[in-house]
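Running co-folding for pyridoxal-5'-phosphate.
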Amino acid sequence: MNETNVKRIYADHAATTPVLPEVVEAMLPCFNETWGNPSSLHQDGQRAKELLVSARATLASTLGCDPSEVYFTSCGSESDNWAIKGAARKAKQGRNKIITSKIEHHAVLHTCEALAREGFNVVYLDVDSEGIVDLDQLRREADDTTALVAVMMANNEIGTLQPICEIAEIAHDAGALCFTDAVQAFGAIRFNVKEIGVDMLALSGHKLGAPKGIGALYIKKGVRIANLIDGGGQEKGKRGGTENLPYIVGLAKAAKLAQSRLDDVPRIIKMRNRLIDGLCALPHSKLNGARGARLPGNVNVSFEYVEGESLLLWLDIMGISASTGSACSSNSLEASHVLLATGLPIEMAHGSLRFSLSHSNTEEDVDRIIAATAEVVSKLRAMSPIYPGN
Ligand SMILES: *Cc1c(COP(=O)(O)O)cnc(C)c1O
């Protein structure tokens, strides 16, 4: 197990990604040269303004929308909060229902819980065993009391992709708005906001090679939501605060790079499938999430009779970074709300492991992950009093 001199394998890109060198390079001039306030009328400010305008246009082009529909925020969680609370607070009289799913990120779930405490009627859609939302239930629930339907585009734990076009259509048929958390999907799969038809969409920089602490919210022209930060006139007066120009420029650069690398996605899918097959060949293992409608880099497998945390720590010693689900819940020993919603028994949910691959991973990484996981799983089972045959 003494593998300290072996190159580490980072397979936790769903938690965060390293900042890409090209992104750092694009950001540096904003610290050294173009440090002005984009609202200032002098040349120092106007040069910064040009970078801001250009970054907004770049991000808009990767989303397929107009630059005026892009609002910069401080993170994905902020975008989630703003979209949902903003829509709820601007909803027409009589529309106090918010429909979301049981497998959302906590930034969405806890926001909805906060609104429920304020008196909103929050409905949580069920998902099937692959993690796909129940569209019939959505059709039944979406009515003239519904203000918003909020369903994520891709799940961060099990990678399931939702039928988001249909979800948006059902929401609109009921006269409600549709919001999607695309934090995991943006940069990982090809999409265009206009084709999807959602009214709002959240994304975050650090999931695609930009730094932590920058995000954006797409708000379709004509959609009215409550302002987030009252302050100066930044972000059309809806989200005040002097713009974080270096990070905004970094986000735009990362989005552009991610788009140019979408051609490499088939290679990631191939690695993912080989990793899934290798792990699922181990006895008493089960793939979580869908085979087909799945994020290119996501692998989530449950190993019966094994604790996910033990597995994670042993893999870490062997130079592999993985996750037991979502990094945000790794401090608590509660089983994943996502896995439980798919109907997975609690013991299996505790034995789950997520690997999230990206462009930087290789076939050799996949081989090492399979071999190391096989070794650790059999070692842990050999010590388990409940493993059959022990
Ligand atoms: C990471 C993540 C978030 C939160 O984004 P932050 O920028 O870390 O706040 C929200 N939703 C999903 C699906 C995520 O994966």
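Result summary
The radius of gyration is 22 Å.
Residues 97 and 121 are 5 Å apart (CA to CA).
Job closed.
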